[in-house]
Amino acid sequence: MSAYRIAVLPGDGIGPEVTDATLLVLDQVTARIPGLHLELTQYEAGAGLFRKTGQTLPKQVLDKCLAADAVLLAAIGLPDVRKPDGTEVQPDMMVGLRRALGVYAGVRPVKLYPGVNCPLTTAQKGIDLVIIRENLEGLFASYGGGAVVGDAAATDTIVITREGTRKVAEYAFGLAARRTGRPLDGRKMVTCVDKANVFRSFAFFRKVFFEVAAEHPQIAADAVYVDAMSYFLVRNPSDYDVLVMENQFGDILSDQGAAIVGTLGLAPSGEIGDNHGLFQPSHGSAPTIAGKNIANPLATILSAAMMCNWLGERHKDPLALKAAVEIESAVSRVLAARKFMPADLGGSATTTQISKAVADAIQEALG
Known about the structure:
Number of strands: 12
Strand content: 15-25%
Shape: globular
CATH topology of the largest domain: Isopropylmalate Dehydrogenase
Number of domains: 2
Distance between the termini: 20 Å
Largest sheet: 10 strands, mixed
Oligomer: single chain
Strand order of the largest sheet: 2-1-3-12-11-4-5-10-8-9
CATH class of the largest domain: Alpha Beta
Number of helices: 11
């Protein structure tokens, strides 16, 4: 039997709704794949908890996350729950959780599914790329630091290390080797996205990237400035396979990536380290629609598929790998049929209807 302990953090806003939707799908896929067992345990964390207790991520919950085989997080943060300095509490939890888990590669697939209307006229060959953001360094390394001089000036410092850059670049080339290549022609390639023409830190990032690229001659490698890449993602998205970049650039471009494939509601993510994996949708907690049963759960469901794939690769487990394939395939079939489309894709299907449609598609495929 393949058994895994999953720490589930429903969080805030629509988080509990998309969590319930995702657990329905996971229950279905595990019921249809004999020998695969996921022990899914929910823990409270996030802005709602901070409002009650003054903590976003209690130590006992963090310990459970560290002890789990993977962490599945739905959404956290509420705009009206803030610290005394006026900032939201969400970054405290996310940065703290990422640092504790050591998840250095933020992996954000950008995929155009059948049945989804693409806002671009330049995507005839399809969109299927992955944005990888270095997850612990870059500008985000200044979180909790920085300096404010009176009311006159403020600074934050970007941090790029050889070890951090090498690790995320190695991950990018390893991922490219497992993928089928860019939609344009099937060529496997990794593109470094930076601002090396202006900043020494990014020139160093690029230097280390090409050192790693030389160790993977079977994978093509190139580099593009971030401003140019924001243009190319709209003009020629099928030209790209795996993109790797500094934290802040990845944070921005991954949202652009979600836009070109229709919605953040189809934007899953995985945050990967040497020993831990954290999986969550790229969207926020959307408190204005919480409780209305209209949130799109597919990004969370696809994040769960990424979780199963990571568990399968990490443990060489064909059952977990099969679960990942079946979940994503079911999502693809539901979208292609266009019967249960979420509001953010122009439909009127409820959260519950969408999750049931995906679960039913799994049942139909696996019997």
